Fold this sequence. Notes:
Strand order of the largest sheet: 2-1-6-5-4-3
Largest sheet: 6 strands, mixed
CATH class of the domain at 33-152: Alpha Beta
Structural class: alpha+beta
Distance between the termini: 97 Å
Number of strands: 6
Number of helices: 7
Radius of gyration: 25 Å
Strand content: 25-35%
Order of helices and strands: HHHEEHEEEEHHH
Helix content: 40-55%
CATH architecture of the domain at 33-152: Roll
Amino acid sequence: MRIFIAVAVSSLLMACSHVSVTSETVNPPPKRAELSMKSLQNQQLLDKFYRAFQQRDGEAMAQSYDANATFSDPAFGLLQGQQVGDMWRMLTERAQDFSLQYKLLSIDDNKGEAEWTASYTFSQTGRTVVNHIHSEFRFQNGKIVAQQDQFDLWRWSRQALGLKGYLLGWTPLVQHKIQQQATKNLANYQQNKSR
């Protein structure tokens, strides 16, 4: 009986020695210990940025950017320099019933990605908006030098504008009007702030 068991175990071991096991991981998020010092600083910068956003601290958010930073999204289009910080100051000052959740997706020495969801009351209509945004960042010298946000402007317009947004929010005409209104609001904010 012992010989039978020994032969069975030996055969099993020999069979296993011919089996190759492979493991494939597709771009796992880096573990804290795997991040370079620069990447870790960029992660801390984004965590600080989003925590300030959760607390509606537009000033702290603005300080995360380089003086010549760029920002773009479907609502504001392309903003540069002072406009970027002022946009966050304006939005956080005017936010009603605001909450934010975020998740950092990837960070390295030069770039990062995040997903975040903002819930708030759109002040012009009193309607509730839940906006899902994907952000891509570029970093330099411990600051954000570029941020590009993507979200579904038609989905946003359906929530913020109601029936008008549902029926027409997908059209370039209405989307352009939304962008014009957003940049006009920012220009007015900047003008009033400088007085």
